Amino acid sequence: AKGLVEEFTAKNGRKRYRLEHPQKLQDYLNHQEQQLHTVERQLDSALPDLISRYQLAGNRAGVSYFEGMEAFQRILDDSLTATETIDSFLDPRALAPYEEENRAYKKKRFERNVRKRILVADTPENRARYLERSNEWTIARLVKDFDQSFGTDMQVYDNKVSYLTLKRGALIGLIIQDPFIAHLHRAVFASLWATAEPIGFRPPEQ
After folding, report:
1. What is the rounded CA–CA span in Å between residue 155 and residue 91?
2. What gap in Å lies between CA 181 and CA 116, rounded to an integer?
3. Residue of 40, 71, 87, 166 with fewest CB within 10 Å of its CB?
4. What share of the chain in percent tops pLDDT 70?
5. Do residues 5 and 18 make contact, with C-beta atoms less than 8 angstroms apart?
6. Could you tell me the strand order of the sheet in which 86-90 lies?
7. 199 within 8 A of 140, measured Cβ to Cβ
């Protein structure tokens, strides 16, 4: 079954067995290693949510913490599980060095039909950015007198709040799963959203 032994029929009609070429051992080991990496990736993807659910079962807030580019990837990947519109506070200038990664994330988000509302500071750069990039999956509004130097992306979705600091060389990601904390952040966002200036794509009136 592992491909390490060959079966053949001898001249007398009896079945015989002999070892395959020793290179087969390396091939088998490589195959096992690939399978292990696949399982590791699946576990890495599922582990934050499993930990959060485990902690919530004990009436504790579920908290997951990451560092480096793993933080960037984990925070974005988790937001793709959102079953409702994501509400986000964003410092677009801090996101600029990760444009390639963000482009790949947006493609996945659009494919999964995950919508996002973003609040950003009212600056000429942000006006130009979201006049061009707003669409049915990404709607931005501008907040006057809003300090955009926080260098962080905060997202609220389902019962989660995520934070991603975007400083090069010091990426930190945090996911908090708690309905009360999420509700508080969503209420603050909704209050600012109601008074912020729409820009770019505007969804049809409901």
Report:
1. 12
2. 19
3. 40
4. 93
5. yes
6. 62-67, 172-177, 160-165, 152-157, 86-90, 116-121, 138-143, 197-199
7. yes
146 strand-pairing partners: none
Q: Give the global pTM.
A: 0.67
How do residues 133-148 score in pLDDT, each as one tens digit?
Answer: 888 899 999 999 888 7
Residue 14: Cβ within 10 Å count: 7
Structure token pair of residue 191: 């209050």
- Digit-coded pLDDT (tens) for 65-123: 899 888 999 999 999 999 999 999 999 999 888 989 999 999 999 999 999 999 999 99
CA distances, 153 to each of 5, 32, 38, 41, 128 (Å) = 55, 39, 29, 25, 19
Q: How many residues does the chain have?
A: 206
Q: What does each C-alpha distance from 178 to 102, 127, 165 come to in angstroms?
A: 26, 33, 20
What one-character DSSP code corresponds to residue 200?
S
Specify the 3-state DSSP secondary structure of 114.
coil
Candidates 149, 155, 164, 148; CA nearest to 68 is: 164
What are the start-end ranges of the E strands in 2-151?
Answer: 5-9, 15-19, 62-67, 86-90, 116-121, 138-143
Specify the 3-state DSSP secondary structure of 19.
Answer: strand
Both tokens of 1, joined, read 């079954």
- Which residues on neighbouring strands pair with residue 89, listed in sequence order? 119, 154
